[in-house]
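To: structure desk
From: M.T.
Subject: fold request, one chain
Message: Could you run this one when you get a chance? Sequence is below, nothing fancy, just the single chain.
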Amino acid sequence: MGKIKTVSLHNTKRLVIKVGSALIAPREDGCKTRYLLDIAQFIVHARSQGIEVLLVSSGSVAAGAHHFKNPDRNNIAIKKAMAAAGQMDMMSTWDRFFDFPSAQLLMTHADLRDKERYNSIRLTLFSLLDEGILPIINENDAVTTDDLRVGDNDNLSAMVAAAADADTLVICSDVDGLFDKNPNTHNDAKLIKEVNSITPEIYAMTSGPVSGVGTGGMKTKLEAAEKATSHGIMTYIINGFDETTFSALLQGDNPGTLFTPFDKPMEESQHWMTHTAAEYGELVVESERIDKTDELNCKEILSIEGEFSAGETVLIKNTKGQRLAKASSNYSSCLLHFVTQNTVGVNTSQMQRSMGPIISNNDIAVLEKK
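Reply: Done. C-alpha cells follow.
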C-alpha cells in the first residue's frame, strides 16, 4: 500500500498518547510528578490547539505496589490487588494536573474483541470527546484473566486509537525511538527517524530486554504501530523522559521515530477483525490464498478446529499452516462438524446444498503477509 509522506502533528485532529508505568511510578513507590507534569502540559497545549486527546495510561500495578509488604510478584491475586489499589492513585494524580474534567475507562480484550461491546466503547469515547472530557484508559488488570488480556498497553493504545478514529498515536518510551540496534548495549546504534513499512527486518531490530517496571518493550510498540498505521493513523515512538520531545511535537517536528500511515487504510470493520477480534476456531482449506471477494462453502473446508458459535471470528488457514484470513462464521463449529462428516442415516450432501456460504465475502479480512 502507498504511504502518506508529509505528516506532522499540525495535521492532527484527534490524538492518543500512551504513557507507561516507568513514567508514572518509576520506583514503584506511588505515582510521581517528575515526568508526568511535562506530559500533562503537552496534553493541555494540544487541546488548546484544537486537538482532541485520549490518554492510555499504564501504571496501576506499579503505583499500588508500595501498599504491600514484601509482595509475591508471582501471585496473580496480589498483582490484581496492587492494580486495584494503584488505579485510584494513578487517576487522582492525572486528574489534579487538569482544569478540565477527565473520565476513567477500564477495559479488557474481551470488551474490545466483542463487536457489540467494541461499538459501545466507540460511542462512549465519542460522547466524552464531544463534551471536552479527557478519556483516561487502562487495561482492567484487577479483574481480567490471561486469556482476556491485551497484555500490554502499547497494543491497547493502538486498539483505542482505531476505535476512537484518531489520526495520531504517540507512544512514550524510555529511548528516543526505534534504533537499528539496542542503544543500551551498542554505542554506534542509530536512530531511525522514519519507517514507511514495518517489515521482518524492522522487527529484527527490537531484540533486547523488557523494561523492569513496564510489561512491554520495543516489539510491542512496533506491533502497536503496525495496527495503527494500517488504520491510517500516523504513529510516533518518542522518549517520554525527555521534556523537549513534547515541545518538538507541538511545533510539528519529529523528535523520535515516525511510522507513516497507509494512504488507503483498512475499513473499520476489516481493521477490527484483523487486529482486535479474537480467533475462536480455525477452518482449514486447500487454497494458497484467499481474496476478500471469496465465499467459502462446506465442500471447500478440509477440517474444523476449535469450538465457536455462529457469528464468531475464525482463522482461515491452509494445509501448510499459513494464515490466510480472519472471518465471521455463519455457522457454529458443532453444525459444521455435523454437515461435513458422513453421518450414518443423514443426507449431509443435501444439507450442504441447502446451506448458504460458511463465510460471506462481506465478513472476511484477508491477512497480509509480513
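Reply (cont.): The radius of gyration is 22 Å. Let me know if you need anything else for the meeting.
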